[in-house]
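Below is one such protein, fold included:
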Amino acid sequence: MGFHGAFLLAVIAMTSSRTYSTPITTHCGKPADVVFVIDISSSIWPREFNKYALTFLQNVVSMFNVGPGENQTRVGAVTFSTDVRLEFNLNSYMKKSDVLGAISKIRVTGGNTFTDKALKYVAANMFSEKNGGRPDVADIIIVLTDGKSSSPAKTIIEAENARQRGAAIFSIGVGEADDTELMQIASSPPSQFKFKVTDFAALDSIMLELALKACE
């Protein structure tokens, strides 16, 4: 999972031919630099991931006022399994529709769950100025995973490092994700920044709560 800071996934729409699960009623007003850290390891079924996880991520982005302005939000994404893959930087896409389209292309590749590598990469690279990071807005890391990390001790160290660098972190666990590890990754108090659902289809059940907290 990912960092102890403050912020995670939120709620509400999709792209093109997909069906909206919840009506879009509001948008987050505060600007932020938001990076999704997404588990694509072998324990995840591609069909469920494509149908539920990607929809959830798109719904969250749809709540943000995405754009290049100083009062707008920028979005980046990293996926991880055995290795870390940069999907797109904070300055790769400045239109919400482009971010949604990029998310729709993310695919499960299989492999182990090296959450620590992803957190280390994000803390060192994603919020830099050259990659679109800004010094005057909140840095938010949103970790979505369905299992325990392959290197738990290193994961906790890298989460702490990310928090020390100023990142706010929400951890979202699905299914067999380790509850203790989720708490150790999330910002404090865990009751506000850690979420757990039974399966990917249940992500809808936390969308409203996440949206409200992210919009704070």
Summary: The two ends are 22 Å apart (CA to CA). Strands lie at 32-39, 74-80, 84-88, 138-145, 167-174, 194-197. The helical segments are 46-62, 96-104, 115-126, 152-164, 179-185, 190-193, 207-214.
